[in-house]
User: Fold this.
Amino acid sequence: MSEAIRVGVVGARGRMGQAVLQAVGDAPDMNLVAAVDLGDSLSALTDSKAQVVVDFTNAEVAVKTLEFALPAGLACVVGTTGFDDSQMSTIRSLIEANPNVGLVIAPNFSIGAVLMMSAAAEAAPHFDSVEIIEYHRKEKLDSPSGTSKATAEFIAQARSKAGKPGFLPTSAEAKARGESVAGVTIHSVRGEGMVAHQEVVFSRDGERYTIRHDSFDRESFMPGVLLAVRTIMNRPGLTLGLQPLL
Ligand SMILES: NC(=O)c1ccc[n+]([C@@H]2O[C@H](COP(=O)([O-])OP(=O)(O)OC[C@H]3O[C@@H](n4cnc5c(N)ncnc54)[C@H](O)[C@@H]3O)[C@@H](O)[C@H]2O)c1
Assistant:
């Protein structure tokens, strides 16, 4: 049997970090070698000879993780969401400067969410309107969620590929109309007890088509995280989303 993959986790005391520690600890082909959180030095990753770094922190911290890990040759799996354009451009520059290292950034590691995004892309050319409603815990830092923004981008790309115009405009005067991403309106609901939930609501004359996905537990993200850890060392460059790894 080949040697176990040496994994370091950043954000180890967080909700997702705790679930990753458990999943990596339970995986027979992985060794958890570093668990880093606020106040710890990232050098624990290199000191422990980690091969893959998993980051679930916040956008600012994740960029720092990548600035440390990619030049050190450590493959990275990032589940953190909320990167702005400037942070994404820093990340792209880091990958260009370190082209032999693999990095996957996925706003949602659950299999059901990936399928929801594919279904939304498939439906996009066939309807006149679409809006997304996403639901997360009230402490979530970013809105709209990374998953909803990725879904909106997929919908817009699929529609443009099919040669269809943008969706029908709604009243510009109306209030409480959410945020537009790639021409798709997204509404963000925040509340106690929520994990990650999303509805993509398509409509046209006489019919409505709703695609809904619910993550009830953080365990739902773990098969996707472990898949990314297993594949990213042999996949140099930037991979966006889980789809290409499935
Ligand atoms: N990709 C996915 O499938 C997925 C799923 C759920 C959540 N998320 C995202 O993952 C991220 C984390 O979510 P969470 O619910 O675990 O949040 P959380 O607040 O529970 O955990 C974040 C952790 O990061 C730590 N941290 C803060 N600053 C740090 C620093 N300088 N160095 C090291 N660690 C530091 C915090 O102490 C905390 O333990 C968020 O961006 C969230 O949107 C992604």
Residues 146-161 form the longest helix (16 residues).
